[in-house]
Amino acid sequence: MIADHRLIKVLLLSLLGMASNAIARDPATASQIGVGAQYDTTHVYVAPEDVDRFVASFLATFGGQSTKQVVVTVTPTSSSTTSQLLQTPVGTVSVFGFRTPIPYPFGAERTGYLVTDLDKAITLAKASGADIVVAAFPDPIGRDAVIQ
Known about the structure:
This protein has one domain (about 1-30, about 40-115).
């Protein structure tokens, strides 16, 4: 019963994140380095033993499809997580099931955006008053940074 409540909270937080991103998006002021709205994902961290059940429940509720689950290191530290992308009509969700402790500040981020030039994005973010929490680092599909 407690696990069901946690799953509902995760779903609600995911939907809230997707909705707030959609509401806040203003094409007239969007940076030209952003690839597009379809390339932002709400990040969801799920206990590894619950990932398959979460994915099945999410897709049964909202429709869509999942990429194949892979085991990767997505942080600049030694860590291991399952990772898969849920592409649904209501938005895209990146699901992580860490098999190791989640290194700080990972798990605190809420969304990820694909940009054409990460260094330029970081420079623009800093110029706008953002803090760089984790400097740019390589990951399995390119480079990442954590910005607040």
